[in-house]
Amino acid sequence: MEVIHEITPLGGRDVLYIADRHKKEFNYPIHNHDVYELNFVENAKGVRRIVGDSSEVIDDYDLVLITSPDLEHVWEQHECTSSDVHEVTIQFDLDISEDGIFGRNPFRSILNMVQEARKGLCFPMSAIMHVYPLIVGLSEIKDGFYAVMQFMTILYELSRQDGARTLATSSYAKVDVESDSRRVLKVKNYIAAHYRDDLRLPELASLAGMSPSAFSRFFKLHTSRNLSEYIIDIRLGYAARQLVDTAKSVSEISFLCGFNNLSNFNRIFKKKKGCSPTEFRENYRKTRIIV
Fold first, then answer.
1. CA distance 196 to 192
2. pLDDT tens digits, residue range 15-61?
3. How far apart are CA 61 and CA 129, in angstroms?
4. How far apart are CA 63 and CA 89, in angstroms?
5. Which region, left, alpha or beta, applies to residue 289 given φ > 0 means left and ψ of -120 to 50 means alpha?
6. Considering the chain, what is the average pLDDT of its residues?
7. What is the pLDDT of residue 114?
8. Contacting residues for 282 by C-beta, under 8 A, at least 6 apart
């Protein structure tokens, strides 16, 4: 099974592609694409949004930024009863990197946001309402220069809002971990390389040069998660990726990803993902097609 790799309508000299449409239902299969995408959905309560190994049922409004060419995503009808869902999809091709203008101070917040969005970045209602007039009015701007300037304003305003959260796990999205703390980064890199092993707090604390109790507090302060929760999320991300990309059995995947007990793996997976590993695999098969 292969995810559809969407060919963007953007030409080699284009910057923006804006699709502003009203839909009665979502039918498009799960896909990815080389260009960045900001996707806004209105009047869509009950729609299911899948981004990587994240699956959520959205409320009336949803706004997500995706900046990885490998991250699968789709919005599908699910339980939505609305007959007029408003969708604005903005695909854009910009060199948002450290080496260009976005690496300089006035644009730095946009660069940071785009890097976070490699895992999919979901914005809170306060941020959505803040840029709502700019998004719904974007397709009305006929002059390309002014359309790009308004879109840049949207990105900048979103980058200054609080409360955005990533969707896919870093292990599923194949994104290298980053951190403001070199100690935390060292431990995260070690976990990423040894997630199959029996990871213990004293060993990881030693890597950071701290006592176990001090490191536990330090790690939670920098990641907002307990160390054990972080390790489980990393393992589940790798497991979800293997469920999607391989034909290995659930039992084999559980042991390959550091879970010593199959029933424990099934229980934790269902608690975190809202479905069993087998159901997760089947859900992806239902939304994927062979190409």
1. 9
2. 999 999 998 887 777 888 889 999 999 999 999 999 998 989 999 99
3. 9
4. 10
5. beta
6. 88
7. 93
8. none
Amino acid symbol at 67: T
Cβ-based neighbours of 19, under 8 Å, separated by 6 or more:
87, 88, 89, 90
Q: 78-126, pLDDT tens digit by residue?
A: 899 999 999 999 999 988 888 888 888 889 899 999 999 999 999 999 9
- pTM across the whole model: 0.74
**φ and ψ of 155, to 5 deg:** -60, -45
Residues 6+ apart with CB under 8 A from 74: 26, 28, 29, 30, 31, 49, 50, 287
Percent helix, strand, coil in the chain, to 5, is: 45, 20, 35
CA atoms within 13 Å, Cβ hemisphere of 18? 17
Helices 144-159, 108-116: inter-axial angle, 10-degree rounding:
80
3-state secondary structure of 62: strand
Q: In 3D, which of 254, 273, 275 has the Cα closest to residue 265?
A: 254
Whether residue 5 contacts residue 33, with contact meaning beta carbons closer than 8 Å, is answered with yes
Residue with tokens 């949004």: 49
Displacement of CA 289 from its chain's centroid (Å):
21
Task: Please say whether the beta carbons of 27 and 287 come within 8 A.
Answer: no
Q: What is the pLDDT of residue 163?
A: 92
Half-sphere exposure of 221 (CA within 13 A, CB side): 10
